[in-house]
Amino acid sequence: VPIVQEGVKKPNIKTTIEFISIAYSDLFGKTLDSRQLNDLATSYASFGDKKLIEDLIIKNFLKDPEVNIPSEVSMRSDVQAFVMVTYQKFYNRDPNEFELWHMTQEIEEDKSFNPEIIYYAFMTSKQYRKF
Questions:
Q1: Does the pLDDT at position 12 exceed 80?
Q2: DSSP bridge pairs for 13
Q3: Helix H segments across 16-94?
């Protein structure tokens, strides 16, 4: 019996420009100026390994001092709320019960997890790359 969760199947993959601009907007809460977007898109297009350049772009965004990432104290004060907001922010959906439980458990049990690592994991996932 096939089991399908609504909202998980996203058939369309974001274009390079969409991926870069949406990632920037998700992290900074503002749009990327056209010159920077063009520079990043050119770098993306010139690289053979698309997953590697996506990884580098996301890491570069996350290391920027102006990025809007919750603090670790904020995340750990209400892990379940952090997980809910993160799913909405990056996947435009609520997590199902298992996802909510699993992510909450992982964050609570592993003190090395911080918001930057969680954001990186979400943004480099296949699900984030799709509409």
A1: no
A2: 130
A3: 16-28, 34-46, 50-63, 72-77, 79-91
